[in-house]
Structures are given as structure tokens and as C-alpha cells.
Amino acid sequence: MTFYERSPVTVHTVRALTPGEGVAPDASSAPEHETNVRPVVGSPPVGRWSVPPRRLVHRMSPSEGSAFPERADGRPERTADPGGPRVTKVEITVDGTSTEHEVEPRLLLVHYLRDVLGRTGTNVGCDTSNCGACTIHMDGQSVKSCTVLAVQADGSTVDTVEGLADPVEGEAGWHPLQRAFHEEHGLQCGYCTPGMIMASKGLIEDNPDPSEKEIRDGLEGNLCRCTGYQNIVKAVQSAAAEMRGDTKVEVEA
Ligand code: FES
Ligand code: FES
């Protein structure tokens, strides 16, 4: 089976629907055209600049061998560096667990967390380091993990949103910020929430009783596309009160 299959196709255009053009308006009498390539669902678009399908299939066929030139040792030459990528060993304590891996020096910490450790609670929401969805704590400081290389975190202690709750306790083991975001409806799609919670945690640790303005200033590096921020501010105020040990306060609407 190839990406494409040959069969005749009937094409109708808007001209076939327009009376007075010499073409009957009903589809049955519309002109038929035959094409020799019909894309199957999921296939790449057919166009002047697309890879010819037969060539694409030919290059990918295992029975045809590699499309790349062979090296003296028989392995295909695929990279500019025949020796392959250099790797560096890193040791990072993540959510209380010691981890140790060999990584490429260019690997970002957020990708180490997500792709190497499988801790996908930390999100990637942009490629410009401005959304804050990837916020974690590194040695107690809240940082955007897409701005840090994994090798820079070597020897560090990293805390992510996945380490906040006690998994054994269920909802009773949630962090006050997690509970407050839930109760104050501080999320909609939830994509920004891991970063919001970790940034808020750092904010409250630095300032246990932040004003609304201080919360808005403190979270300016975290973007939410859904909530309009009002309920996020309420959630942070509520969590801060609980973490201070105050009785539950009614936050302003
Ligand atoms: S993914 Fe890090 S700031 Fe957006
Ligand atoms: S809840 Fe959707 S981006 Fe913030």
C-alpha cells in the first residue's frame, strides 16, 4: 500500500452551479475530469513542490536499504559528526528523587523533565520563554525550565507541580494552592496551571501576605489564555491565607 492510489475522481466547481454559463446546474451533468493521483486521508498534500510520492516511498522502504551513503564501518552517514552527539552526565534531584542520566549539552531542563523522566506535569506553552507554563523551582527559586539547560541544573534540587501533592492522600493531600485553584475556579483548560501554581508558591514563600497588585506583578511572567486572571488572583489570596494559618477569608469578587 502506498500513500496514494490511482482512481478517477469527479470534480465539481462553483461554475457548475451557475445558470447561464452553458453548464447545467445539476451535478449529474457536470463535466468530469480524471486525475491520476488521489490523496488518502492523512497523506501529505499533492502540489508542485511536494515530494513525489513514489520517491518518498522508495526512500523509506527498508528493503531498499538506506538512502544515505555508507561509511567504512557499514553504518549510514547521517550526521555531520560521525562520532555522534556528545553527552554529559547530570545528577538532579527531582521532586525528592535522585535522577542520573547522560544528556546532550543542548537539552533543556523542561525536556529533561518531560522526555527523559516522563514528568509531563510541567508544560511547554511557547518557544519564546514568555508563557511561564514550564515554571518549576530550582534550589528553591522559581524559574522557567525552558530557559535552563539540563547540564546547568546538574547537582540541583528541582521541584515540579507533580511533587506538591501527597499521592497517597488523594484530595486531602493536595497543596493549599492546588485546592485554592480548584475551589476558586482559577483554571479553565488548565494548561497554564502547573506554571501558575509553581510561580505562586514562590511568590507566597517570598511574601506570605501579598496584595492583589503584588500577586499580579508576581505572576506577570505567566500567561493564561482562558481565565482573565481574576480567579487566579483570588486563588492565590485564598491559598496564602491558608498557608499563613489564617481562618478562611472571603476574597474580593
Ligand atoms: S514554555 Fe517556558 S516560558 Fe513558555
Ligand atoms: S486556564 Fe487555560 S491557559 Fe490558563
Please render the helix and strand layout as text.
Blueprint: E1 4-5, E2 38-39, H1 53-60, E3 88-94, E4 97-103, H2 109-116, E5 135-138, E6 141-144, E7 157-159, H3 176-183, H4 193-206, H5 212-218, H6 230-244
Parallel strand pairs: 3-7
Antiparallel strand pairs: 1-2, 3-4, 5-6, 5-7
Helix pairs in contact: 3-6
Bound molecules: FE2/S2 (inorganic) cluster (2 copies).
Could you write a compact summary of the structure shown?
The chain has helices spanning 53-60, 109-116, 176-183, 193-206, 212-218, 230-244; strands at 4-5, 38-39, 88-94, 97-103, 135-138, 141-144, 157-159. It is α+β, with helices and mostly antiparallel strands and 253 residues long.
Can you describe this structure?
This protein has 253 residues and is α+β, with helices and mostly antiparallel strands. Among the domains are: 88-163, Beta-grasp domain (Ubiquitin-like (UB roll)), CATH 3.10.20.30; 170-244, DNA polymerase, domain 1 (Orthogonal Bundle). The chain is built from six helices and seven strands. The longest helix is centred in the C-terminal third of the chain and has 15 residues, at 230-244. The chain is globular and about 75 Å long. It binds FE2/S2 (inorganic) cluster (2 copies). One FE2/S2 (inorganic) cluster binds next to loops.
